[in-house]
Queue: 4 jobs
Job 1
Amino acid sequence: MTVWQIILLASILVLGIKLLGYLVPPRVLEAPTAARTAELTTVALLSALIVVQTIGDGQGVVIDARLPALGVAAVLFALRLPFILVIIGAAATAAALRALGWQ
């Protein structure tokens, strides 16, 4: 299979799964367990995406200026700063470290 065939097949499968969601009775979706599971799954997927994009490089792991920038962002979030300041702080940290020669 080519890459485009795989992408097309995956898109069809995702659409099918989404359409199956409409067949689930509303009482199932309103249950506290389902709501809690959906919330935790969202957080877990977002966390995994952040980690992969921060330290992933193809098939390997790379520690570069993105990791300390992520740490700065986490601290700024913990301090409850506005989102734009978190972004600016993390970007400034990565830029400063790269200017100092840390790739």
Note: The radius of gyration is 20 Å.
Job 2
Amino acid sequence: MAVMEFEKTRGFRIAAVVTGLALALIATVIVVHNRQQQAAMTHVRIAGGGFLFYYRLGEVRAGVTAIVQKPTPSQSRLVAEFENPAGGAPISAETRIRHGEMRYGLETPPLSGVVKGRAYAVTVKLYEYGGAEPLETHETVLTSELEQETSPQGPLTIGPGYHRPPPAE
């Protein structure tokens, strides 16, 4: 009887060791695969963007959304340079990467001269904290589906309520 109990225990031990080794091998394969995938990803990607028509304010702005895909040094800078529809130097918008945040919106001040159907270049750069050279550079284009003239010349309301603006003198 004692021999049969030993045989059962021995088989169980062998099965446990084999199962443990198989699980360790699977875990190792998963870790290596995840590291390879993460190494292939960029820190940031552009998720979208476009022109924002704030009709109540009579303003047109451009904006892009960037998503952090993998761990990025805290306090890194995310800088977007928008082609100026009025001509001249590019318009820049900047934000800091904060721990735990994944999505960042970068928006220009009010623009003028936006033309329907024209592509405007946008460059998004990621700078390490205190760094002068960008870690990554991403480019995209934004195209307006509306003319600037469709937006009112000034704000439709003034103040906290829906009051009409005072007549121009």
Note: The chain has one helix and seven strands.
Job 3
Amino acid sequence: MTTVEVSTPEKSTDPRALLKELQARFDVFRNFSPLAIGIDKQLFEQMPEVSRKSLRVAMRSHTISTRYLKEMEKGTVRLNLDGTPAGEVTDENRQHAADQLRERFKKQAEQRKAAEAAARAEERRTEKLNQLTEKFGRKAR
């Protein structure tokens, strides 16, 4: 029985490494500019060896970054890979970016408050233990 190996033209790439490569090669990624809808098709033309899954993960990572969302929030024009205009950033797009940022900052503030409260509780616990040790601990003779 023989097995036939099917080789795919796509190579598996680490999404983080791919994103760094995209940022090195294209200004729109380096500057976190609002990207054209369907820019993945342009990327596949330029980089046919990239796996679709890796590109999808890299693009997701890029488009949910705080810097990208801030650019989307204030941006007006979407750009192609070469930096040419490719449509507009709609009010709905800007509002979505603003909502995402607001939610992210709210969650970070809540986490910071929780961490500070836990640190204060640990300080009180340590102080209480020290007081009990002083009160009931063996005294040196």
Note: Confidence is low (pLDDT under 50) at residues 1-10.
Job 4
Amino acid sequence: MDVLFWILIFLGTFLFMEFMAWFTHKYIMHGFLWNLHKDHHNKDHDSWFERNDTFFIFYAIVSMSLFYSGASGFWYGYPLGFGILAYGIAYFLVHDIFIHQRFKLFRNASNWYSKGVRRAHKMHHKHLGKGDGECFGMLFVPFKYFKK
């Protein structure tokens, strides 16, 4: 029974992280911490790293803290930490590698999901300022972006 709870907590955390990514992106990154996110939209830097990567580091620290709490006896810390880690890996693969090509992988993906996610992200990046944005999610985007 503990394994079932572990799996449910892991999956629930993974799914909840999509909401957290949307919320953080819309209200924090495009809000009071725009100064950390704007270089991602404007590309006003010469480095491979962006100030925007700070958000990725924040969630990595949260995940590691939950692993530590799991090792300290709070067993829920493990599935919570792994759920955040798994979402972070998925986000990195989809956003940084697939969409923005920070590594030259997955360049030829052309299935319906990959096309929809790319369209949605392209629409998000057409806005260079912090206001008037759309499509703040990452893995689950509105169906309108999947239409031809």
Note: The chain has a mean pLDDT of 84.
